Amino acid sequence: MEALSLPELLFFCLVIVLSYAIRGSAGFGGVTVPLLALVMSLKTVAPMVTFLGLISSFAILRDNYRHVVWRDLWRIMPWCAIGFAAGLYFFKTLDSRTLAQALGVFVLVYGGYSLWATLRRGSELRLPMGAVMPVAGTLAGFVGTLFGANAGMFFAIYLDLLKFAKIEFRATVAAILFGLGVLRGTGYAAVGAYDRDALIACAAALPLMGIGIFLGNRIHARLNELMFKRLVALVLVASGVPLILR
């Protein structure tokens, strides 16, 4: 892992703990990569976060796999595979700044709308799931592979529109991210992304991730349905802002 100053190292620790506390409570989170990319190479951050995502998804599923809605998971995974293939192809060549900013605007707008909808009854957006599913799955696979994260936001949109209860939402999005993480991890290994820096970063971040997941599990247990929907909306907003500012 590239040498970090003491303030950068403290920032690294704080981002990992807070990001995986969000991941543990909501089942997903999109702030890890754009924040760590401020102090580290994206080529190191992306494979590291993919590895951590596999471990954190497994930790969530260990106790909640019975609540996974497998029908909706299997419907979206083929689209994720298509996006993964495209994302891996462009991993080393695509200029990601403009794309990241455009995605940040989209996610920020949708997250803001979702938060507003929880405050105003009868304002739910109705979109055809036949159109949402392939778009969300393909974008999640593509963006998740290209940046190493930020895929959960698209699954959150998909599952939010299906009106899942919080426990089914969390378990299903964790299962989807686990499946996508296996694809991404295999792809990164195939193109040599797990070099010395990435492996050191994985080892350093692993115990911090454990602390974050522990805290997130406690947060999740204390949220009612309305609070959970608002948390999802706030995570979406928080995911969009760093992308716009990259």
Mean pLDDT: 75
Helix content: over 70%
| Biggest sheet overview | none
Gap from first CA to last CA: 21 Å
Which segments are poorly predicted (pLDDT under 50) over 5 or more consecutive residues? none
Q: Note the overall shape.
A: globular
Q: How many domains?
A: 1
Tally of separate helices: 10
Class by SSE composition = mainly alpha
Sum this structure up briefly.
With 246 residues, the protein is an all-alpha fold. It is built from ten helices and no strands.
What does this protein look like?
This protein has one domain. Helices cover 79% and strands 0% of the residues. The longest helix has 26 residues. The protein is globular and about 45 Å long. The two termini are 21 Å apart.
Name the descriptors.
mainly alpha; 246 residues
Helix and strand layout, with pairings?
Elements: H1 6-26, H2 32-36, H3 42-64, H4 70-90, H5 97-119, H6 129-147, H7 152-161, H8 166-190, H9 196-221, H10 225-245
Helix pairs in contact: 1-9, 3-8, 3-9, 4-6, 4-8, 5-10, 6-7, 7-8
